[in-house]
Amino acid sequence: MGTRETLEAELLKEQASGFFSDVYVEAGRLDQSSAAYSFGDTSSLFDLASLTKALATGPLTHHYLRDHSFEISAPLKEWVPADWQSAFSSDLMNLSAEVLLAHQSGLPAWRNFWMGHLNEGPAPAPSIKNPIIPETFARLNTLSTGPDTYSDLGYILLGYALEATAGRSLPALWEAYLKPLGMLSSDLGYRPQLKSSESFVPSAYCAIRERLLLGEVHDENCAALGGVAGHAGLFGRGPAVGDFLRKLSHSIEGSAYLKINHDLLAAHSFEGLSGMRRGNGTSAALFADGKGMGHLGFTGTAFWMDLPSKRYAIFLSNRVISGRLNPHTTTVRRQVFGLLNELA
């Protein structure tokens, strides 16, 4: 049995077992116009979860700062509006996009944004300068967890800073970013940019919202923020994710973003780079010998790329349909990316 047949048999077996109901995989080269290999659900929209960090928030942050002549090492207080700063502590305003993107800010991994919001009636609509964000950050004591603590909070803060500074929503900023790439937010975008009649992959039953999530972001904090945030909220069709990675590498702006992340692979040993993550985890160990970069998403999504060889691989699923936590996820990802490594 060849690599393709082995991979597809494995994916169909996991689908039949109920581990996920929908899946899309793709492998290829960043310098080619189309994928070398793909299999699975090409038309449905997956909840990309934390891939939002690497695909949207990272590029948008680099683009905004470069476009307005700010250094990525500049503290937030140098480039966000004064009225916005007043809602946050001086410790937070002294943080830079550089440390927030790299998960080296000292911020804790997680805080509850949804309590008192998501469980009280319908989910809120997204809004610029959402008061839930400063209210929640005000409850933080000190930045004490140390560097290399993977933190959703850093990306929530960055997304909020971008909206407040640009005076435009993340979906609007994202649509403008996609336009020069010749891409549509209807294929890779935030929920407000997607039609209600679109085909969505179901993620899981949410006990808080008391319904199966279909076209609603799985992450509770993101949902409480209106489904749009710096750490989650992006939905996408499998082929659009691959198309974005290839077009990103072809553009001046995108190739600069990828190079910054790649250079950090050799510059330090932290997991966080500058929007992306180091691909040396167990689930990515068989792709590019664990030397690549990319990101994982809690809902069952992942991508990895190796810039020197121009190879990339994508694995999208809705593995949370079978339970919120499942150690089997790592095993499946490791096997899938090992096989995609041979097909890229």
Give a short synopsis of this structure.
The chain is an alpha+beta fold.
Which descriptors apply to this entry?
alpha+beta, Beta-lactamase, 2 domains, single chain, 344 residues, six-stranded antiparallel beta sheet
Would you mind describing this structure in some detail?
- This protein has 344 residues and is of the alpha+beta class.
- The protein folds into 2 domains: 3-45 and 182-212 and 234-343, DD-peptidase/beta-lactamase superfamily (Beta-lactamase); 54-173, DD-peptidase/beta-lactamase superfamily (Beta-lactamase), CATH 3.40.710.10.
- The protein is 36% helix and 13% strand.
- It is built from 12 helices and 11 strands.
- A 6-stranded antiparallel sheet has the order 2-1-11-10-9-8, with helices on both faces. A 3-stranded antiparallel sheet has the order 3-7-4. Strands 5-6 form a two-stranded antiparallel sheet.
- Strand 9 and strand 10 (301-306) form a beta hairpin.
- The radius of gyration is 19 Å and the shape is globular.
- The mean pLDDT is 93.
